[in-house]
Amino acid sequence: MSDAVRLFVALELPAEVRAQLAAEDSSNTRAVPLEALHVTLAFLGSRPPSDIDAIARVLQAEAGTPAPRLATAATLLLPRGRPRVLAVALDDLDGTLAPLQARISAGLAEAGVYTPEARAFRPHVTFARVRPRALLPRIGPPSPEPLVFTAERLTLFQSQLHPKGARYTALTSAMLAH
């Protein structure tokens, strides 16, 4: 699959939420670029470009469904054991995010373009990556006021790996109902 593209489906974050979640580089971490902050719903990996239309149909089937109302929660080091990223957990205030993720996962699997994850969906936003061989950063208590927001845009992204971090290009989107 030499012409394969690296793909994932995500919820885009409102600009004001991305601005508040933006991290600064430190000796231990490298901030994820502001425009790259998102909530991954399904990582598809390397796929042939011919799969993009089938994936777009799965996203379009969700157009107009309720947009998840989310709130930031605790700061996390992920994955457990050998953490490589700093993330903020998300609370699903209306209970719509997990069913949306499950429908996307099932639709992509039915289209033959995705094998669902065995582990449970854990909604979060990665905002920094731990530098190689760095000591793990200390995590303070979560901010006293969670950010509450609605994630209205469901997007298929192409991820292109680069030495300074992955770059994401939106390929197609579907708007959810607010």
Mind explaining what this structure looks like?
The chain has 178 residues and is of the alpha+beta class. The chain has one domain: Cyclic Phosphodiesterase, Chain: A. Helix content is 17%, strand content 37%. The chain contains three helices and nine strands, in the order βαββαββαββββ. The protein has a five-stranded antiparallel beta sheet with strand order 2-6-5-4-7, with no helix packed on it. A hairpin with a 6-residue loop joins β4 and β5. The protein starts with a strand and ends with a strand. The mean pLDDT is 93.
SSE diagram, text form:
Blueprint (H helix, E strand, L loop, with lengths): L4 E8 L2 H7 L7 E3 L6 E10 L4 H9 L8 E10 L6 E8 L4 H14 L13 E7 L17 E3 L2 E8 L6 E9 L3
Antiparallel strand pairs: 1-3, 1-8, 2-6, 4-5, 4-7, 5-6, 8-9
The whole-number mean of residue pLDDT values reads 93
Helix content: 10-25%
| Strand line-up of the largest beta sheet | 2-6-5-4-7
Question: What is the number of helical segments per DSSP (H or I, 4+ residues)?
Answer: 3
**How does the helix and strand content classify structurally?**
alpha+beta
Total separate domains: 1
What is the CATH superfamily?
A: Cyclic phosphodiesterase
Note the gap between the termini.
39 Å
List low-pLDDT spans: none
Class in CATH?
A: Alpha Beta
Q: What is the CATH T-level topology?
A: Cyclic Phosphodiesterase, Chain: A
